[in-house]
Amino acid sequence: MVARYSIDCREFPSESNCSLTIAGTEDEVLLVAVEHAVASHGHARSPELREMLRGAMHEEHTAAAT
């Protein structure tokens, strides 16, 4: 099973009070989070932005099926 990650805009200060949560594989979340940060929040696309977002992702833990 592939690990599932998420990032939540509510964890960052924002003038728009953005409430978007992105979830998926680590690569999917990072790709979409960068695009969202640039398009919706005016951040510059940079390696520093990618690393900041990567550090803010959380691995989701789910209970194993019985």
From TrEMBL:
| A Pfam family it matches | DUF1059
The record's section on InterPro entries has: DUF1059 (IPR009409)
What name goes with this protein? DUF1059 domain-containing protein
